[in-house]
Every structure is written in C-alpha cells, then in structure tokens.
Design a protein that fits this description.
- Helix content is 46%, strand content 16%.
- With 407 residues, the protein is α/β, with parallel strands linked by helices.
- It has two domains: 6-213 and 390-403, Rossmann fold, CATH 3.40.50; 216-388, Rossmann fold (3-Layer(aba) Sandwich), CATH 3.40.50.
- The strands form two sheets. A seven-stranded parallel sheet has the order 3-2-1-4-5-6-7, sandwiched between helices. Strands 10-9-8-11-12-13 form a six-stranded parallel sheet, with helices on both faces.
- Helix 3 (81-101) runs parallel beside helix 5 (119-131) and helix 12 (321-327) packs across helix 15.
- The longest helix has 24 residues, at 159-182.
- The protein is globular.
Length: 407
Amino acid sequence: MENNVPHLAKKKIIFIANLDTGQGMSGGSRIYFELLKKIPENFETFFFGSRGTIKRLQQENVKNTTFFETDKSDKTNLYSLFGVFYHSLTRLIKGISIVRKEKDIIENANYVFSTSDFLPDVIPAIFLKWKQPHTKWIAAFYFFAPKPWQKVNPYATSIARRIMGVGYWLTQLLSYWLIRKWADLVISCNELDRKIFTQEGFPAEKIISIYGGVDLDFINSVPAPQEKSYDAVFMARFHPQKGPLTAVRAWEEVVRSMPHAQLVMIGNGSEEAQVISFIKEKHLEQNITLVGFKDGVEKYTLLKSAKIFLHSAIYETGGMAAAEGMACGLPVVAFDQEGFEYCYPQGLLAVSPIGDYRKMAEAVLQLLYNEEKYSTLKNDALELVSREWDWKKRVSFILDKMRNLGD
C-alpha cells in the first residue's frame, strides 16, 4: 500500500469510536485499526475515542493521527445491565459534547467514519454531518442484532442478558433507520447484511461488504514452533455469541476419545468465570489452557502452535478470527452458519446443527485422525486468505469507494 494517493490528498477524515473500551478486540475494531494504520500520510486524520482505545492504537504504532479522548476511564463494567446502560449513555453524551467542542477540527471535514452501529458512535457522526452537510458519512454496520424471539439467541442465557439483547435490538432499529436515511457509504461485514440493506431500498452502490482481513506480511514473519503444543485453539471474546462454553463442552467430548488432547483459549469476556468453573468441575485443567487476550507476535505464535481453529460461535455471519487462524495454516471447524459460503467457501469443516457440541467434537476428531483431509483443508485455508483476505487489498478497496463519493 503506497502512502502517496493523489486523488485523496489533503482530505480530512474523523473516526468516531466512542463505545470501544480498548479491552479485547472485536472484528469491527480490527477493521478501523487497520484502516487507521494504512491511511496515506497525506490524509489529515482525527480519532475520537476512549483513553483505553487510544492507548491500544498507540501501542499498535498508529501514526499521523490526532487523538481526542471522549472518556478518560480505562475500564468499564460491561458485564452488568447497569454497566452497559451507563457506559452507552455517558459515551453518547460525551461524544456529542466533544464534537460540539472541537469546532476547528470538524470544520471542512471531508469524511466522518462511525466505527460501529451503536448509538454512541452513530449519533455524534450524524450530528457532525448535520453541522457540516458536505461531509460524507461512512457508517460501519457489521452485525444485525438477533431478534428477541429467535431460537438461536446468544442473549438467552439469563434474564439480564435477555434485557440487554432486547435493548440492543431496539436501539439498533433506530441506528439502522438513521444510517439508511443519512449515510453516504455503509460498510457491512457480510453479503447477507448487504442484501438486507438493498432489499429495503438502500442504493446498492452505497454499501460494500468487508469481511475484515489479515496482515499476511506480519503473520508470515512470526516463526512457527518446531512442534505443535495444542490440538486446537479457540480465539474470540468470551461472550455467548462466540460460544466459549460450547467450545469447552465440545473439548470434554474430545478428551473422552483423546485423553491428552490440548485446547488453548485466547480471549476474555463476560463468560470467563463460567468457563473456568466448567473446566474445574469437569477436571479439564490438564486439557484446556486459558491465556487471556493476546495480540501481535504472542497471538500468532499461539495460533501456529495449534493444529485446528475451533470456531464455536453460535450466532455469526462473518468474522475474521477464523481467517487469522487460516493464515497460520489451521483448518477451521465451525458451525454451519448462514453466510459462511461467502466469506469461508473453503478451508472450513462445517458442523450442524448449530450449537451441537458433540457434533463439533466429532468433527475435531475426524480432522485429527484423517491426515489427508486435514492437509487438504489446511492448503485450502492458506490459499483462501492469500487470495482474498490481505489487509492491503481491503483498505485499498475502502479508500477507492470513499474516493468515488466525490467532494
């Protein structure tokens, strides 16, 4: 990716990421992180977000960006109903406040990029656009919230989570309406969501699908260990949507057939305590290793230390964690999610029905015992990410779409 892009010279872009805390790393966060790292130097770039997120961006060596803190707290309790409500409300208010305060910054902004569909990101972005009608609004919309009555629902684990899920669904209805009415470009994370937008009248030329990406140059620079330490790796937020409890239940079944089978779990989140409790209850301490959130060299060293990527998400339409595993030469075992045919047409062993941990365990064992199938899927995975998932290609595509919006 060259840093000299004449047709985007001297353009001003403002990123708004009020809801992101900098704890962990979602796929949506990774998309704007990589975009910030690869935007040409002759862009004038500003970032509005929390202190925790700004620290993470600086640690990842994001340069040529001016940062503005919308919240000075490093940690927020997002595991309680009150914590989520308080966090969202305060970030929304502070986001609008700082946009109003920094008049010199928003003046003559060419683009504003809201980094999620949550209202604390959407409302300040649309407020800026109302102040500066010529500003082009690029809105990220990566995930349609599950409807409260859906059978497969990651928020159905408790009453508090059901309330959170209903709240998320209701607030997203508002942000979805605002984005369809005012956004100049929408970035979705899968083809299914893009089709929903277009079927409801949103212009097809104003929405693109970006599944995320992988930094192939960096991944290939991380040496692989001489021997594999783990039979599988799970890497995701410890959130009901991502299925960490499903992963450990599946691994209990794997251990019944392979007593020394090893699983390493990368990540943290609201279900971490439940995962730890299950491991202790089932005496799986010698079979499952929890390492917390990892990034950079540590993350890819762990991925390359495993044989299989265990993707146990129960509600997913895209996501890039599995692609990172594929880039490290890992075939993926995942539930047969609608939409995976677009983002993972190869390199993945699909399991159905969704949520059946016993079937997932059978698929893991099938790959571990079948060297020919394992090798085929591994090669397919590597070929897919090298062809379609390179971040340099993804970012160039986004910048080209921004250019086509005109002034």
